[in-house]
Fold each of these.
Amino acid sequence: MKKYIDFLKKLLLLLLSIIVTLNLLSLYQNGGFFNFYFLEKLNVHNILLWITIFITLILWFFLIYTDRYVWIFLIGTFIVFVSTPMLHFNKKALINYYHVYLLHYLKDNDKEENRYVMERFSCLGDQIIAHAGGEVNGYTYTDSLEALENAYHNGIRLMELDLQKTKDGKIVAVHDWEKWKENVGFMKKGKPTLKEFNSYRIKGEFTPLDMEKINKWFNSHPDAILITDKINSPKAIYREFIDKKRVRMELFSVEAVIKAIDLGITPMPSWNTVLRKLTYPKRFLKSLNIEYVVVPYKTYKKNIVFFHKLSNTSKIYLFGNYHSPIEPNYFYGRYVDDTLLENICR
């Protein structure tokens, strides 16, 4: 009998050791240790992980020093063993593990640190994005035809448009419906139909953009690239836009990012709504070869060291500092309102 008890003890000790290791790894990757996300990540999930580790270590300790109550320890081990995957494997974690941990286990490597941080910001190529089409006649957030023309004339080739659906399900360029109503004098409740949307001029002077006009403009400007915001459906853009190779989508969920890649559309994951919530953001980017990331300016400034390390994986575009002059050597690209580059580039 003693032989079976010794074997069971060794098996339980092995299982408990595995459980502790898994939980410690999860805490490390999820910000549960002392890094710059520690306080922010001190949530119920991580507290439960710490409790599970503590209970597991108690079981492990007593198993070493006693031969009694082995069956009680077996039950305790079973409980923590079952609780561990419950703490790890939600839908988001499964996607993350599948794409990153199981298929592409990649160690973070900072030997190429700052690969995508420019030594001198040149304001050329794909470093500048015209936010909502860019400023036109002193107005921002117009998402209008005139804004695109003005930005293109000033040398910008990356054009961001906020895309949303009308009441009848048609994609149009609009930042938010309440502001649009205020700008055009639309008095009805809810969203307009496509016909109603096209019947108003923004601020009384700018041409609204539906997908037909957007496609026509990009067809006549073959070196321009569409950057989308608001819309989180790669399938809709794949179906509606003229050239999937000339569109980059800011996306707001892991599922949307993966769908975009499947369709051959270039994703630009949002830091706030996608990467910040992942256990392995850097490995996620590496495993899927994601080239672009969209990060709020305030978040970047608070965690510059971390994002400089992230820059060896992807090109970081900042938003939220639309009017401030370009600061050299601290990120790859940014969104701007003023598309007259001599006003923002040092």
Note: The beta strands are 128-130, 158-165, 171-173, 225-229, 247-251, 266-269, 292-296, 315-319, 333-336.
Amino acid sequence: MRPRKRKVRELSGFSGFRARFPYPAGVPDSRPTVIQTEHLSPGAAAWLADRAHLVVGAPGSEAFEAAAPAATGLVVRTYTKVDDALLARLPSLRAVGRAGVGLDNVDVDACARRGVRVFNTPDANTQAVVEYVTCLVCDALRPRVFLEAPVDRARWDELRQEVVAHRQMSELRLGILGLGRIGKRVAQVARAIGFDVAYHDLAEVPHDLRHGAKPFGLEELFATSDVVTVHVDGRESNRGFVGAWLIERLKPDAVFLNTSRGFVVDHAALARALRSNPGMLAILDVHEPEPIDATNPLLGLPNAHLAPHLASRTDAAMEAMSWVVRDVWDAIKP
């Protein structure tokens, strides 16, 4: 006799993820329900789908709303806001996993009031962000040109005269605002390159964890650094922390980087500084709001480079962040 065919339930996810697993015909899926609202790596999503009834859909979608009453797990990334309003639609929820480092989009207190456990992946993207910051610094300070066709001796010599870095990293100070997990690694890399490295942090950082970075007062850090890179956390008190009073202290040819949170920086004040100082350069990977809208005062400024939140976008980092699904499963499994 031929084996009886079994129905296969198919889940469609983000970036082409498809998980397939069989269940007996006519038998309802009694496994715990988990809702995935944003992209996960295919491997992590498939692992979870082998164990739970995985539903893929953003809040407001038909799939999300149908699964919400029974969902005991929720996995989000960056743009799903887990607040009282969303939690009220998830009465059975027991665990939230944020596939990322910060918890800016998760109201941890609201979750705690409902007995919902919250998980994230604190060190999953450190290497990716540090690599990205290093690349941005190189882009800002070391001009490069690549040839696509033969050139004669005159043009060759001309290019070698034109493409010259006017500042060498070993002559400059790199200031780090926030010497946390990522800030420490940035300090380590910057010192290895040859920068004089300074930092400011609210907490006292043990000497052996500074990687040669020297503590500075906040105003002094901004006033004396040739490159300032921001690496602070998402606490509400950091909103607008880098305001006009600090931005106005930047050197007229400073390079200013922000890969932490968009709301940390007063964009209007930064735009004014960039207009007044054409030699200043700002490179921002994070914004408030995201995506950038037409009201952003930095749009159109030649010395403002705006990137679409790319610092953590390596396959390795996204894979590591996605495995928050293990913690969610451990919290809800029967």
Note: The domain at 8-124+318-332 is CATH 3.40.50.720 (Rossmann fold).
Amino acid sequence: MGWAVHYMAREEEKREKRYSDLTLFKRLFRIFAYYKTETISVLLIVLTVSLFSTSIPILMQQTIDMFIKPGRVEFKTEIIIVGLCYLVFIILNFFLILARTIFFARLGQKLIYRIRNDLFAKLQYLSFDYFTETESGRTISKVTNDVDALGELLTTGIIDIFADFVSLIWILVIMFVYDVEMTLLTFTVVPILLITAFIFQKRIRSVYRKTRVAIAKVTANLQETITGVRITKVLSREEKNIMNFRDLNKENYDANVEAAGISSLFMPLIQIIAALGSTIVIIFGSGLDVFIQIF
């Protein structure tokens, strides 16, 4: 490989973000327009599942408050009806989740199918300079590995965000109906949550970009080694190729371990913040006087 190719590879690794997240998401959302029916079906199912999932605990709470008294349980016709309704809710929720999973898979595969076809068509019209300055392995990695990651983002990622957002809005509505003051207390940890997410967002973006670059290097090296196997045999470069691949594979390993470490730290911090919010609600909900008496 010539020095120009190495130079272009290094430039790709150092490339700064050219577009804002909003601009990139707008471009990504355009692909959903090709599958409007499937997208609308998935969104409706997600909306229904979110409403069902948050309604089931309310049904259980109302049943306990109405029919289970301290020291005794009132067995009435109403409790049997409520119990049957609860069972129907669970069964419907099961089938909705099953339908959501199936529709997710179909939509995801259609999106990946479309993206790969568009990318391959784009490759046919790129200039000769692109193929001269870019290793074939890096191009293969973008059409395979990067498309898989993009497909996962477009389906499970974005759809899950929508589902969580709908559930959050519905839960907030219920919380405000039950107790406005306690609901406002839960918002005290929101600034901490936003700051934490903002700090990790930059770091996670950086480390996961390193993983994409690292796997692209591995794919490029593998492709060049296989296509150039005759030259390798003639020049007896087997050991040299093995060492080069080990270095690149180690770089890929280190990048993925670093990314996993950052990701594994994020969720425990979110859980700590959530526990802090629950603690605030418990303290003020039970009354400061009771809390002081306990301690």
Note: Strands lie at 68-69, 72-73.
